[in-house]
Each structure stands twice: as structure tokens, then as C-alpha cells.
Write a structure and sequence with these properties.
Elements (H helix, E strand, L loop, with lengths): L16 H8 L5 H14 L6 E3 L2 H8 L3 H13 L3 E5 L4 E5 L24 E6 L4 E4 L13 E5 L4 E4 L7 E6 L24 E2 L4 E5 L28 H11 L6 H11 L3 H14 L14 H6 L13 H18 L9 H10 L9 H12 L8 H5 L1 H8 L9
Parallel strand pairs: 6-10, 8-9
Antiparallel strand pairs: 1-3, 2-3, 4-8, 5-7
Helix pairs in contact: 2-3, 2-4, 3-4, 5-6, 9-11
Pfam family, one: Phage_rep_O
Organism: Paraburkholderia silviterrae
Protein name: Bacteriophage lambda Replication protein O N-terminal domain-containing protein
């Protein structure tokens, strides 16, 4: 009888354990994990480091919407976990094995209402749908019958009262709470008329060891668990003010607000827009305000979806580091943290100068340091440009023996 289980003979994916360990600790979202695994399957699964992979391919493999795939890819690129370059048919995507250069995930900080081991007392109303997310410490059993709780090991509590009349107290020693708008637990007492104190048996607990905050309410059932990272004001005007404060070219504000109001972004889209603004502001074009489009144009054309390159690729960084090591002290170091699009293009062109010897650049800069008198006011860009490279290799500036 034929074994129908997966067999290595039918193909397998080789991945270094050190890299896998780094990915495990990278704190990715579910969508980012799915997209990352799809990229690994399309690259390492075929013994490639990178490949031309379209968003449609990733959407088909993961079952995610193309828009969600795009957001996940951008998030992974922003954290430098994925490398994305312009390819022949789409984008050339691969995993950045230099995990030391990955950008750590940032978290929003919520002020704590109470810390330490002392007891916490919280006054809530009887008829209030209540949300309590409690730390890993097991909550004491409560006396109130008919109460059902869902406990998640995060330190968050949110209360949405319906009536301000009568209430009960939750007194649980050793519980640390912080207040944030979250809904994960519904408390429905059988007797809403009189207040009571929860302190012992009668509570049924469901413990879910999650590390992300999922929002699912009666009025807003979610198809997917949405990982909240920021909470923005409910007022559309206040949301626009946040956008406007970050947009570098402040002209035609009325038109910009009209376009923003028409878009009416939710928390997820607004966060995506603000991240895109930060990415665009790092491009060389946006460093000059006259080249920044009007905000209304940027919004109406959904420019936050533009595929922008704002970081050097690992190969480009290696070339710059090689120059700095050999000639930086003499000609001036190139700043690795400042991305210049023209410089990146020059490096890519420079790497094609010797097809038969693709590693020639590793020897080039040390050789220049030992044998070439570089002309005044010439530096990195001149040495890797076609004209400068031709003159240097042709011996025009080679030192003569004394």
C-alpha cells in the first residue's frame, strides 16, 4: 500500500536552524507568518535565495486578500526581514539572512492603573458588558453564580457601562490591570438589581494564552483576529489632524481634508497611511518639498500603496562597507543610514561591470587604496561610476614606482 504521507523525495525546504530560531522570535503577525512561509517556499523550496514573486502568487498560496498580502510584505520589508528589489516581472523578494539587522517590533504602551502584588479593586456596573484581560496569575474563584469569564494572559481591562446605577466590586489579590479599549470577556450576572462582590467560587474560566489583542464584539464580529497596535481618536477631524501634522507639504489643507473625509480611514488604514508617510519621507525626492505632491492628490491616488525602496539591499550595504573599510578614512565614509536612490542605482550598475567575476568588487577597493591616487573631490560615487572605474582600471591614476 502506497504511503500517502509527505515524503522528502518529493521535495523539501532547507532552512538553517539559526535563521529559523530568529524567525520564531521575531514576533510576527499571523498574516506576516503566512506570507513569510510562502516566500520561503518559493525561494528556499527551490534552492533559491530570492525570486520574482508577485502579490497574486502570495495571495493564492496563503488564501489572504491581495491588499492584506501587500500590507504584510511592506511590514516585513520595513523590518528588513524580507528584501525586495525591482525584478524582471515584478518584485524580487527573498529572506534577509542577516537577522542582526532586522528591526525590532514596536509596541504601544498603555499606562497601568495598578502594579505590584497588592489587591486591585475595580468598580463596574452590573449590566455592563465587561472586558477583563488578566495576567498569568490565576484568578481566585468567585462567589457570584452565573458568571462566565474569558481570561487572556495580558494585562488589559476595558469596561463599557450601560447603566450607571448599581455596581459590584472585583477584589482579587495579586491582579495587575491596565486600562485600554479592549473587549474579550463578557460578565452577565443573574441578579442585576443588587450589587455583590466577586471574591470566590462560581466563576467558569477559559484561559487562552494569546500574545496579541483580538477585538470581537457583539456589534462587530470579526472574520479574522485583527492585531491592534494603535488606537486613534474616533473624531474624523482629529484623525485628519494627525495625518496633517505628519504630511511634509502643508498646502491646500481644505482640499486635503475633503479627500481625507471621503476616504474615512479606520484604525488599520490610518496606521498604514502613517507608516507609508514615514517611508516616503525617507526618499530622496521627498527631502525637497517642491517634489512632494499635494496631500489631496496623494490621498485620492492612494499613494500609500506605492512600492518604495528606502533602504539599501544587503549587497549594496556590503559594497559600501567594503569601500569604508579600505578608503573611508582617506576619502570619507559613506553613511549607511542615509539612503540615496541614485547611489543605490550606481552600486547595482557597478556590480555588473564584470559578469565573469561577480566578486571583483571585493578586491577593487583594497587595490585602489594601495595603487591609485584618487583625484581631488572624487569619492565613492566616482570610483564606482563607469567613467571613473574605466579610468582607474586603465591606469590613468595608478601610482608610479619611486
Amino acid at each position: 500500500m502506497q504511503d500517502e504521507s509527505p515524503q522528502l523525495e518529493n521535495g523539501y525546504t532547507r532552512l538553517a536552524n539559526e535563521l529559523m530560531d530568529a524567525l520564531i522570535g521575531a514576533r510576527l503577525t499571523a498574516r506576516q507568518w503566512a506570507v513569510l512561509m510562502a516566500v520561503i517556499r518559493k525561494t528556499y523550496g527551490f534552492n533559491k535565495k530570492s525570486d520574482d514573486i508577485g502579490l497574486s502568487q502570495l495571495a493564492s498560496m496563503t488564501g489572504l486578500a491581495k491588499a492584506h498580502v501587500s500590507v504584510a510584505v511592506r511590514g516585513l520589508v520595513d523590518r528588513r526581514i524580507l528584501i525586495r528589489e525591482v525584478g524582471k516581472f515584478g518584485h524580487h523578494i527573498g529572506v534577509n539572512k542577516r537577522y542582526q539587522t532586522w528591526v525590532e517590533v514596536t509596541e504601544s504602551v498603555t499606562p497601568k492603573a495598578s502594579t505590584g502584588d497588592e489587591g486591585v479593586t475595580k468598580l463596574v456596573t452590573l449590566n455592563a458588558p465587561e472586558t477583563i484581560e488578566i495576567s498569568d496569575q490565576k484568578m481566585d474563584e468567585a462567589q457570584a453564580p452565573g458568571v462566565t469569564e474569558s481570561v487572556t494572559p495580558t494585562v488589559t481591562e476595558s469596561v463599557t457601562p450601560e447603566t450607571p446605577s448599581e455596581g459590584y466590586q472585583i477584589s482579587n489579590p495579586g491582579v495587575t490591570e491596565s486600562v485600554t479599549p479592549t473587549v474579550t470577556e463578557s460578565v452577565t450576572p443573574e441578579t442585576p438589581s443588587e450589587g455583590y462582590q466577586i471574591s470566590n467560587p462560581g466563576v467558569t474560566e477559559s484561559v487562552t494564552p494569546t500574545v496579541t489583542e483580538s477585538v470581537t464584539t457583539k456589534d462587530n464580529p470579526s472574520k479574522d483576529n485583527y492585531q491592534k497596535t494603535k488606537t486613534f481618536p474616533h473624531s474624523l477631524r482629529e484623525r485628519f489632524d494627525i495625518f496633517w501634522s505628519l504630511y511634509p507639504r502643508k498646502v491646500e489643507k481644505k482640499s486635503a481634508q475633503k479627500a481625507f473625509d471621503k476616504l474615512c480611514p479606520d484604525d488599520s488604514l490610518l496606521e498604514e497611511i502613517l507608516v507609508a508617510l514615514g517611508r516616503a519621507s525617507r526618499t530622496e525626492q521627498w527631502k525637497q518639498k517642491k517634489f512632494v505632491p499635494h496631500a489631496s492628490t496623494w490621498i485620492n491616488n492612494a499613494r500609500w500603496q506605492d512600492e518604495l525602496t528606502v533602504d539599501y539591499s544587503p549587497k549594496q550595504l556590503e559594497v559600501i562597507e567594503a569601500f569604508n573599510a579600505s578608503l573611508g578614512e582617506r576619502l570619507g565614509n559613506v553613511d549607511l543610514g542615509v539612503f540615496v536612490e541614485d547611489r543605490a542605482s550606481l552600486i547595482d550598475d557597478f556590480l555588473t561591470f564584470s559578469r565573469k567575476d561577480p566578486e571583483f568588487w571585493r578586491r577593487y577597493f583594497p587595490w585602489v587604496a594601495e595603487n591609485v591616487d584618487v583625484p581631488p573631490r572624487c569619492g565613492f560615487e566616482w570610483l564606482i561610476g563607469r567613467e571613473g572605474f574605466t579610468k582607474v582600471k586603465g591606469g590613468q591614476f595608478t601610482r608610479t614606482a619611486a
